[in-house]
Amino acid sequence: MSSRKQLSALVGSLLLVAGGTQGAENEPTVAELWEMVQQQQQELAALRQELAATRSITQTVEIQSLENSARIEAVGEVLDAPISNRGSSWADRTSLGAYGEMLYNDQTSSSSSKELDIQRFVIFLNHQFNDSLRFNSELEIEHSFISDDARSPGAIELEQAYLEWDYSRNHSVLAGMHLVPIGILNETHEPNTFYGVERNRIESRIIPTTYRVNGVKFAGRLGGGFSYDLDVHEGLFFESGHGGELAIRDARQNGARAEMDAMGYTGRLRYTGMPGLELGMTLHYQSDMTQDGSTRSDIGRDGVFDVFGNQVDDLDGLLTEAHIVYQSGPWGLRALWAEWNIDNKIAGVANNDLSNNGLGREQQYGYYIEPSYRFNSNFGAFYRFERTNERAASNIGAAFDSATSRNLVGFNYWLTDNAVFKLDYQFEDDAIDRDLDGFNIGIGWQF
User: Fold this and answer.
1) What is the pTM of this model?
2) Domain spanning 95-446 has what CATH number?
3) Which of 51, 183, 189, 266 has the highest Cβ tally under 10 A?
């Protein structure tokens, strides 16, 4: 009963007594009336306390709601503020990650018929200084360990270490060691991101993935689905005295005391304006792949010479690359073409015993096509046809029938998005009858 109803009842009782409407025998005494009044007053006092408590709780809830709203607004202001103004520690703006893979090759490698290898383990360490400036790095260990034992093929290599600055909206510049923007795999080659146990041969021999350099790169989005990369960096460095340095892959300097007499220039244009589609084209030019005929005895560089012992320089080279990546539902397609055109003076390069010669190397090309089908989130299958020719300009001597074709079929099973099991079988047709047919098994991870 409310306090107003209690007051009404009390007043009514008093009026009835004062009016004398009932018989004397039923009228209460003065003492009884006083007792009734005191009882009613006690009940009123209790109701007043209850009402006061109710009002206090309501006010407390209202105050708490206002305080919560203020806190929510404060958190929103912090999240909207630039990173540099949030007061977070460096650890909150630093990330650590890794990727790696273990492979088993059976009859698919000329170096070993059956081989089990931790091929690589890479650690990421990145830091965000503020909204527009960041540092990215990768440190790689290849083939498990390094020692002076001949059985140790390992290496520790710095794969990336650069600062990247967003100097305006949609445009950035980076400086330091980075991956050259070319092809499909050179920048994105974690094992869970592609089919096949091994990387395809074109993006290993023609495009020397992983091709990393010291330099400066500009990148940005142009609108309409187009983006660009412009890169100025160290170039390749041929030499002829150590048995393999005329191969594109072996000519990488990897940022280690790199000769800079002749730099490399890379430009890429990409289109990603349709869902699931990427089209890309890259031109990579070097004015002199001998680095102006450099010789460096302190690091074992002995220069490039012809069969008569004359030094060769001014070997310019142009690499042209084009690719397509398309995903439509479960169906996928990757295809890539890459071709080197090098000054024809390279054909006369050879060391003393002619084993490392440049015959036919003025033209080198490779291409592949890879359709795939993803049955579900875990399982996908692929087929890949590859063809490479590193001496395509000649049919003389060691350059005769230098082309190799490979067919691969296999599957990936993703345990999660970032952990994968792979298996494939390789059929190779080598023009000099050195076919390598067999299977490969691998596991890979990234986090």
Assistant:
1) 0.78
2) 2.40.160.10
3) 183
